[in-house]
Design a protein that fits this description.
The protein has about 240 residues and is of the alpha/beta class. It has 7 helices and 10 strands.
Length: about 240
């Protein structure tokens, strides 16, 4: 696991975007695994700015997002389908037919998850998987558990995750209680994993991810076993790692 220290959120975003853009430039038809949440937005904005300058081209790229809330339509402003268009896809030249997010609008969890596993496997899994990390060490929506998950599955979100995500909703009561997410095994199939983290609130999770025991009680700790995992985090998020 390689750790890159950034000064602040802007520096973290720029460093992460550099790694992603290098992947796209080296392999124009690469498969990117993408994440949502507030942490990667800065990297997406930087990549969009570089696209506008002509420095990076997404025309042949295909993407597969980690997760989606269960029960939200694709055009719901709180859905991750909507998030990705608003924060990234609408600002670059990617073919929307090549972008994929789990189908949270499908009430049949088994069918939705099985279908997503099939298309991710058919794509050969991501060349680069972008991840954030939750305050409780979750990656995707893989919450602390007594075992590591395998394929895409439906999860009950923990109270801490619901609380953390409530800032994006009008009321905590509006936050969905379930989501479809890639499993940790699927995430580990990526040829490179890039984790971004910022802020003091993530410091314990980042420490546990990098230096704690490998345990499903901290799902991100499994990344210690990946052969090509890079963590880009700001000083505050790395404050316990020194």
């Amino acid at each position: 696991m390689k750790i890159i220290k950034a000064k602040d959120y802007e520096d973290m975003s720029r460093k992460a975007a550099n790694i992603i853009s290098a992947q796209v430039i080296l392999k124009p038809d690469c498969v990117l695994g993408l994440a949502t949440g507030s942490t990667p937005i800065g990297a997406y904005k930087q990549l969009a700015a570089w696209y506008e300058k002509g420095d990076v081209d997404f025309a042949e790229v295909s993407t597969y997002n980690l997760d989606e809330y269960r029960g939200l339509s694709h055009d719901d402003p709180q859905s991750y389908h909507y998030f990705m268009r608003e924060n990234f896809f609408d600002h670059i030249n990617i073919d929307l037919n090549n972008t994929h997010v789990p189908d949270g609008s499908n009430p049949d969890a088994a069918a939705a998850c099985s279908e997503y596993d099939k298309i991710v496997a058919a794509a050969g899994y991501p060349d680069l998987q972008l991840l954030g990390i939750g305050n409780n060490g979750h990656i995707g929506f893989n919450e602390p558990d007594d075992h590591f998950s395998k394929g895409t599955h439906c999860v009950d979100l923990t109270e801490s995750t619901i609380q953390a995500n409530s800032r994006l909703f009008d009321s905590i009561d509006d936050v969905p209680r379930q989501a479809y997410t890639m499993g940790t095994q699927t995430i580990m199939y990526a040829r490179m994993i890039l984790v971004v983290a910022n802020g003091e609130a993530k410091a314990q999770a980042v420490y546990d991810m990098c230096y704690g025991p490998v345990t499903p009680a901290c799902p991100a700790s499994i990344l210690q076993l990946h052969t090509n995992c890079v963590v880009v985090a700001d000083e505050a998020a790395l404050s316990l790692c020194e």
